[in-house]
Amino acid sequence: MEGYDMFYNELDKGRGVIIYTQTNLHAEIEDTITGSYNEMIYRSPSSSFDNSSNLNHVLREITSRYPHVLIVGNFNYRDIDWEKETTNTQPGSPCYEFLECVKDCYLIQHVGDYTRYRQHETPSILDLVYTKNEGDINDILVMEPLGKSDHVSLKISLNLNIPKKQSNIDTTKEIMKI
């Protein structure tokens, strides 16, 4: 897409996550200067229990180390009701443990619209956007899927408070000299 840089994870079978950022943002996956961390995640619907537990561990690690996080991806937890933040699965199940992890980490899930539509299946919210601060997201627009995907695209408008670089020139003095 013109005007955007692409970040993606290379997975087989046409699955995965792509993030496009406006070229003028000069995005990086980790920004150690501002204490921000950006992560994109794809969790297969057939993930093992250990893989799901490892994901929870990673989320806990990220949220304990960074004051600002942006975590986006396809988590494939269709049994979570995101409006009520509940699940009908049992304690110990991957879905239940994931929801508990999200709550323990004080992550805010920003997607409220269905993100996956497949014929003869109930629409679901599988693609999620997390931050630690409500004000980090200005808006999320649901857009048409890319290619043959049965997942919508999400256009996320972030509220970035990036400190301006300090100039070595005292502009007040320069103006007064003229």
TrEMBL record:
GO MF annotation terms: catalytic activity
Domain Endonuclease/exonuclease/phosphatase per the UniProt entry, residue ranges: 41-153
Pfam families in UniProt: Exo_endo_phos_2 (PF14529)
Origin: domain of life: Eukaryota
A GO CC term attached to the entry: extracellular matrix
Swiss-Prot/TrEMBL GO biological process terms: cell adhesion involved in heart morphogenesis; larval heart development
Protein name listed in UniProt: Endonuclease/exonuclease/phosphatase domain-containing protein
Organism expressing this protein natively: Patella caerulea
